[in-house]
Every structure is written in structure tokens, then in C-alpha cells.
Design a protein that fits this description.
This protein has about 180 residues and is α+β, with helices and mostly antiparallel strands. It has five helices and nine strands. Strands 1-2-8-4-5 form a five-stranded antiparallel beta sheet. A four-stranded mixed beta sheet has the order 7-6-3-9.
């Protein structure tokens, strides 16, 4: 019995390591991830409404049918991006993800405290290049630093009643995600 103990323990440890490594590597090796599926919606640095999920298809995993969504695939290699999102009557959130789905910043209408969520998205190098003698305070200008040059800006707005879905979609159509001037 004792001579089988070492091979069994080695097999369990090796199996655990293979499981852990494959679980960590699979999101980076997947060809049809959310970023690739959202590429079909439109060009880079432009905001697009995400189609409503159906029981058989959804543009992104785990989409909630109680929300209307819009997404902006961004590439900051040519410059900063200005994101403007008008808030809806119930709830609006803006989340930022890297190319591989790592969330690094989120903001909602309650924490923004305004009728319009307005911010600039840039890399740390682009932020360092900003002039330091500006008279703009931090309260006037919200700057979000992206850890990568590519990623997603994901906007969600709650639809409290089914009849309000059109109004919420129209409000999301007013949002923009464009290169900063």
C-alpha cells in the first residue's frame, strides 16, 4: 500500500497543476471571446448598442435582459478617448475592461452626481504628457487610466418597465465614445 502512495500523490498534484494552468490560460487562448464577438458590431472608438439577448444567443456572456447595453471597443494607440454618457431615469453604469476582460474601473450615475457622465480615457503615458499648468481641477475633469491600449467601455442602463425600453435605447443612442480633441 505504501508504494502506491507516492504515485497517487504525484498524480493528484500534477492533475491539480494542469487544471489550474488550463483554467488560467484558456481565456487568453479563446478565439471567440467577447472582444472578438463585439468586433462584428462596428468600428473601433465608436459606441454601438448591443442587441438584446435571446435564449439562444447573446453578444456577451451573462447579459441581463433587464438592462439595455452599449459598448465601445477602443484603441488608445493614436490618442485619448472622450466618453460621454447621458444618465437615464433609473440607473446607468459605465465599466472599463481590458482586451482580455479584466475590469479596472467602473462608475455609475449615483457616484457621478450629474445628468451626464463625462470622462477621458487614456494610457498612463498619455496622462503624463498632459500639461501640468492647466487650470482645470480634478472635479472638472475625470480622467481614467487604462492599463492597456485596447479594451472595452461597457455601458448599461436599467429598464424598469418593458414600455420604457425604447426611451432608454434612445437615451443610450445619445452617448458617444470618440477620440478626444
Amino acid at each position: 500500500m505504501r508504494r502506491y502512495l507516492l504515485p497517487i500523490a504525484a498524480g493528484l498534484v500534477l492533475g491539480g497543476l494542469v487544471h489550474l494552468l488550463s483554467t488560467l490560460a484558456l481565456p487568453r487562448l479563446a478565439l471567440d471571446d467577447a472582444y472578438a464577438r463585439l468586433a462584428q458590431l462596428g468600428a473601433l472608438n465608436a459606441l454601438r448598442l448591443v442587441p438584446e439577448p435571446t435564449p439562444f444567443a447573446a453578444a456577451m456572456p451573462r447579459m441581463d435582459p433587464a438592462f439595455e447595453s452599449a459598448v465601445c471597443r477602443y484603441d488608445l494607440s493614436r490618442g485619448a478617448l472622450r466618453v460621454r454618457v447621458p444618465v437615464t431615469a433609473d440607473y446607468t453604469s459605465v465599466s472599463f475592461y481590458t482586451r482580455h476582460g479584466l475590469a479596472y474601473y467602473a462608475l455609475n450615475d449615483r457616484s457621478a452626481g450629474r445628468r451626464l457622465i463625462e470622462l477621458e480615457l487614456m494610457t498612463p503615458a498619455q496622462r503624463a504628457a498632459l500639461p501640468e499648468d492647466e487650470d482645470i481641477t480634478a472635479a472638472d475633469r475625470l480622467i481614467v487610466e487604462s492599463p492597456t491600449t485596447e479594451g472595452l467601455v461597457y455601458i448599461r442602463a436599467l429598464v424598469r418597465e418593458r414600455g420604457a425600453r425604447g426611451a432608454v435605447r434612445a437615451r443610450l443612442n445619445e452617448a458617444s465614445c470618440a477620440p478626444a480633441a
